[in-house]
Amino acid sequence: MQTQMKRFPPPNPRGSKERKFDRSIEDLGNMVMLEHVNITVPDQRLATLFYVTGLGLTRDPYLMTGVTNMWVNVGRSQFHLPSGKAQVLRGVTGLVIPGRAALIERLQGVKDLLAETKFSFREMPGWVEATCPWGNRIRVHEPAAEFGAMRLGMPYVELEVPRGSAEAIARFYREIVATAATVTEVSGAKAARVSTGPDQVLVYRESDAAASAPAFDGHHIAVYLADFSGPYKRLLERDLVSEESDQHQYRFEDITDLSTGKVLFKLEHEVRSMRHPLYARDHVNRNPAQSNRVYAPGHEALSWDLPAAG
């Protein structure tokens, strides 16, 4: 007797054929994480007042715990703040930190202690912009849909670049780094938007201010790549590898026009593989609302992502 085959319902019986998804939204490209921004600071005490006390971030309790360097956690990302002559990013670092009113109160609290520095802050409709004691600009947003599930983190670094360079910068990242990069235009200004991981981007915004910007001073960002060797080979072919760090890491700083070889912008990239010992390392993030005067047991930590939708 012939055995009749059992028929199973098709996947997603609720009507997958009727559903239309833009699958390209899920594409990240080759960069999987923007891990840190590194800027040297002349005074660790003033850096602590701004980044930890003022912004409410968390000094890493495990690594760089001395008096000459400090790693400051912000969700899954960090600021690296080694001692040295002040470096200033030619743009702005975007952060997501919940609690705007509490942030303003903390920044007000460090105002007098940072009075003799370049520290300042101002409230804008969509963010709070704070300037560090040496002139680095930090733009702080509340968690929002545009930042995905991020509740605490570093969604973008935005750089000011010369007019007419955005298209070539986007091409450099697409063809050399093999990551997603598009060009947008807002109010007549073009910007290259480069995917650096889930809900993270590098933004190269064309600006007249770039013409009078100071020379590159050596600050850097750190990124992780899924395909680590491919970009390395393409950079090496163009003599763009600036440092052979170790097995898991190399660096480059020149972003060039691939047609002419002209340097469009300098930003040192610390490029790491996903085998790097620090990849996806768990970061301690404190809840800055906790204090010895107002303390709630079990609420010392602050999660970097929102709970999944129910």
What does this structure look like?
- The chain has 310 residues and is α+β, with helices and mostly antiparallel strands.
- It is 14% helix and 32% strand.
- It has one domain: 2,3-Dihydroxybiphenyl 1,2-Dioxygenase, domain 1 (Roll), CATH 3.10.180.10.
- The chain is globular and about 60 Å long.
- The model has no long low-confidence stretch (mean pLDDT 91).
- The N and C termini lie far apart (49 Å).
- The chain has an eight-stranded mixed sheet, with helices on one face.
Topology of this protein?
Elements: E1 31-38, H1 44-54, E2 58-59, E3 71-74, E4 77-80, E5 91-96, H2 100-110, E6 120-123, E7 128-131, E8 137-141, E9 153-161, H3 166-177, E10 181-186, E11 189-197, E12 200-206, E13 220-225, H4 229-237, E14 241-246, E15 249-256, E16 263-273
Parallel strand pairs: 1-4, 5-8, 9-12, 13-16
Antiparallel strand pairs: 1-13, 2-3, 3-4, 5-9, 6-7, 7-8, 10-11, 11-12, 14-15, 15-16
Helix pairs in contact: 1-2
Query: Which structural class do you get from the secondary structure elements?
Result: alpha+beta
Distance between the termini: 49 Å
Low-confidence stretches: none
What is the helical fraction, as a range of percent? 10-25%
CATH H-level superfamily: 2,3-Dihydroxybiphenyl 1,2-Dioxygenase, domain 1
Q: Number of domains in the coordinates?
A: 1
Labels describing this entry:
310 residues, alpha+beta, 4 helices, 32% strand
